[in-house]
Every structure is written in C-alpha cells, then in structure tokens.
Amino acid sequence: MHLPKREPAAKVATAICNSKYYTGRHVVAGCLSSEVRYEIHLPSPCLAFAMNSYRSLMWSLALRGFIPLAAFGSSFGNALSAQELGLPPTVAVGAKLTEVYSGDGFYEGPMWDPASAKLYFSGFYDNNTSLRVLRLEKPGDAVTWEGKSQGVNGTFLSLDGRMLGAQGKAKAIIDWRLGEDGPVDQKTLYQSDALNQPNDICQTADGRIYFTDPNFQTQQSGVYLLKDSNATKIISNIPAPNGIITSLDGRTLYISDSGDKFWRSYSLDDQGMPGKEETFFKPEVTNQNSPDGMTIDAGGNLYLTGRGGVWMVSAEGKALGFVPIPEFCSNVTFGGPDGKTLYITCEGKLYSLQMTVTGHGDSPAPTKIVTTLTSL
Hints:
Helix content: under 10%
Strand order of the largest sheet: 7-6-5-4-25-24
CATH topology of the largest domain: Neuraminidase
Largest sheet: 6 strands, antiparallel
CATH architecture of the largest domain: 6 Propeller
Number of helices: 3
Radius of gyration: 23 Å
Number of domains: 2
Distance between the termini: 29 Å
Number of strands: 25
Oligomer: single chain
C-alpha cells in the first residue's frame, strides 16, 4: 500500500485564539491516508502540545479503522504508550479479561495439557514456605495436584506431553508425567547445587531445553542449554534472567531481564548456542514491574508479561498490543479446548482472555495475522 508523504505535525496543528481544540472530519491538512485527512485546531499556548496531540489523534483514528496501522511504520511500536497501543489484534471481538481463579498465593508457570484438557499452574503460599502445583478444574475451583513441588516455577509442555519444570528450591530441572492425582514417573533431568534457583524453561522442536537461573540479590545469574543430561551456561551477563522462550523455528532465543527491566533476544546457531545479543523490546512506560514469563502464538508473535500487563510483540520487536493487568503479572500461556484461550497468572489471580489465534503447538502457523485492533 502506498502512503502519502507525512506532513510535519506542526504544520497540521493550526494555532487559533480560543480555549479549546477540536478535530474535524473536514479534511485538508496532510495526515497519513489519502482518503482521510484531519486538521487539528489548538490554542496558541498549546503549540508545544501539538506533536503529542497529532500522534494521539492519528493512533485513535487507526484504532477506529480510518487509517491503516501500517502508516506508523515498524519503529513506532515501542514509542507508543500502552493507552495508545490498544488491545492485541488477536483478542477476540467482545472478549473481556475474566478472572477464573483467585486465592492467597502467588501464581506462576501456567501450562495447558491437551490430553486432560486442564490447566496446571504453580502456587507459592505462606511466604514461599508452601510450594505447590495446582490444576484448574473449572472456573473458581483449583485443586492441589502436587503439594510438595520443591519450588517448581516455570513449566513447559514437553514434546512427549509431559511437564518440564524449573524447580527452584531443589536446584533442578524436572520431567513429570501428568497423572490424575499427581506427578508420576518423576525424572530429574539435571540437578546441581551450583545453581541459584531455576526459574523458567522452554523446549525447542528438536528437543533442546533452555532454562534461566537468576540470583535476584547478587545478580550473578545464568542461562543454560540442557542437552543429554548436560547443562551448559551459555549466557552470564544478564543481571536477572527470568522468562524464556524460542522462536518457532528455534533460531532466536528471547529472555526477559528482571534486573534491567527489558527483553533481550539472541540468534541461535545449529547447535543452539547464542550469537549476537539484541535489545528486543523496551517499552517507554512508567510502570516498572519486572518483566517475567512469556509465550508465543502460532504466528510467531510473543506475549510478554511485565511492565504493567501483557504485551503482544512481533518477532521483530514491534509492539502490537497491550492488555493491562491490575495485579503484578507473572506468566502467560495459551490453552483451552480450541487452544485460543490466553491464561495469565498473577499475584493472587488467574485470568483468561479469549483470542483468535492458538499457541505455537496447537495448530499450523497462519500465514498472516490481521492487524485490526478491537476494544473490550
């Protein structure tokens, strides 16, 4: 799509001597679409405000379908405020953030099991003295599936349908078959007292396992690659690596940094070793809640928890949408009978949000995700 040349905002903003400003659908001044052009009238004292007003107006028009989102360019995403950004385009029309469970714990590590059609998630209670894995039976009802989890935090559904877990207290990576009344055939894939507290975990399509091992106090942390019962520290310069996942093709590693409060990415070679580090996503928002867990959809877009809620970000690091969460938001995964429910774990809450896409393992990747934002 060809877009007309953008006119400077100062040219679009016309100073007039009154106490109000208005926008009109009478279209004369150059904006971003050949079909819809807007003129902004501002009082003289507000000329300094013109740039922000122009940008806010244009984004508002894009949300309502008047002008194409592509007009903002790939570099615009990270500069948007969360309010300007709007909901992810993959949120179902009319969907609302729904509380499906609440309690007095801190909830983490959600994982959907397609075989049992149940959601599992970690629970930390009583100042982290009671460590559990819970299973959601129905909205409002969760049972303790494992009452002595040894600090299982992040979880991941393995290629063979088992639960992989980062077991912080035991300093281990575990592999459990999902039994009706608790884990069975329990395996420890790796354990070392030299670890800090394994936090999150993921597995690639070829079987490689990555996990984070932060030390939130000393920030002497690491990211590990686990293959054939051998764990290799592959990254050591991140202060507090937290959430972790790979791209669908296994060629990019994404890591949230709770220390520096942004997300990093690394290219991966054929052996799964990281190459160049990039700043993947760093939103310009005032909320400083630590980046935490993440997931990926069938189109390769990421859903990142932290900095105020859940951010939908393209594989190129462009912000596509934002779901504000009132509580501290710790992790996220896709699930539900059709794979199109986004589950979000938080401080004392578990939420769900109906989507139009599935998670990475639930269906073939669509060729394109339509970027039309909808409102709650």
